[in-house]
Design goal:
The chain has about 325 residues and is mostly helical. The protein is built from 16 helices and no strands. α1 packs parallel to α9, α2 packs antiparallel against α8 and α9 runs antiparallel to α13.
Length: about 325
């Protein structure tokens, strides 16, 4: 496969995964303005929605107040935000169009239909109902593409590069979400383990659609170390860091089996996979959850760079 084609497929996978995160984050944050305690909890919640996307400085540049409407518009429709849902879908579609013949008709239509719906919208929301429709459309589009790819695409390098990109992006999103909650979200004066803390950890689970899974696995009330264990180390959860690295390593191995060559990306993936396999949540908390997550994000970015250098240039 040409490196240009591999690059289009890889980045299509990343940019299709990326809008699902703010869509879920906005939907979950809408539940936070009325927690049992916390004055100003709503403002803090929308600050966290921006922080979780690492868009604090970009949003500050707009000089808009942090409100539900402003943050939601910035994360969904703002043409000047390269990480908005609109921009991500546009970039994903552009990459998909460049490799149209590598995709099945069903996979292409899932992306194209989502972009056509989004392109009809202006830069401003028409209210909460309109926002809800956008969020549902994005989640449906991502699920439709994943379903079409799983059911109709050949298990070859095109499929592997798409899934490699989505797994790298998914791992990054999960790590950033956890880090924002642990390091930024709980306001000063609120107690760890208090009602607001509990409410926010529950919202984290809902953001990644893992509330039911948590209850099945732990059969316990929501506790920070168990939520972290689920989203970092539990391989049964598709969005956990460990599960993402299972997928990353598997698809890199498949590419190596086809080309007969391995490189720095394989070594970095194996190192990250082993680090997650050989630790436990007690050790992670003892060394510092924030430190672990920031280190993971840095290493995951290094892996993304190594994949680009090895396959995409």
């Amino acid at each position: 496969m040409l490196s240009r084609t591999a690059s289009n497929l890889y980045w299509m996978g990343r940019y299709l995964e990326r809008p699902a995160f703010p869509a879920r984050r906005i939907a979950a944050t809408q539940r936070l303005p009325s927690p049992p305690s916390s004055d100003g909890g709503a403002v803090n919640a929308w600050e966290s929605a921006i922080a979780a996307s690492w868009m604090t400085h970009a949003f500050s540049a707009t000089e808009l107040p942090i409100t539900e409407t402003n943050v939601s518009e910035f994360l969904t429709l703002a043409p000047g935000n390269s990480s908005s849902i609109r921009s991500c879908l546009e970039t994903a579609r552009a990459n998909a169009r460049s490799v149209r013949t590598a995709l099945t008709e069903e996979a292409w239509e899932a992306i194209n239909a989502a972009w056509l719906e989004m392109s009809k919208l202006g830069p401003h929301l028409a209210g909460r109902d309109a926002l809800g429709s956008i969020l549902e459309m994005v989640k449906h589009a991502v699920s439709a593409f994943e379903g079409a790819a799983q059911r109709t695409m050949l298990r070859g390098d095109a499929f592997w590069f798409i899934n490699l990109g989505s797994s790298i992006e998914r791992a990054d999103n999960s790590a950033r979400l956890l880090d924002v909650k642990y390091h930024l979200l709980l306001p000063r004066g609120e107690s760890v383990g208090g009602s607001l803390d509990y409410f926010q950890w529950t919202t984290i689970l809902r953001t990644v659609s893992a509330m039911t899974a948590y209850r099945w696995v732990y059969r316990d009330s929501v506790k920070p170390w168990l939520v972290a264990d689920l989203l970092i180390l539990n391989r049964q959860i598709p969005r956990s860091l460990a599960s993402c690295y299972d997928e990353i390593r598997r698809h890199l191995d498949l590419l190596a089996s086809q080309t007969g060559r391995r490189g720095p990306a394989h070594r970095l993936a194996a190192t990250g996979h082993a680090r997650l396999a050989n630790t436990n949540i007690d050790n992670i908390f003892a060394d510092g959850l924030h430190e672990f997550l920031t280190g993971f994000i840095y290493d995951n970015n290094r892996l993304g760079d190594a994949i680009a250098e090895q396959y995409l240039f």
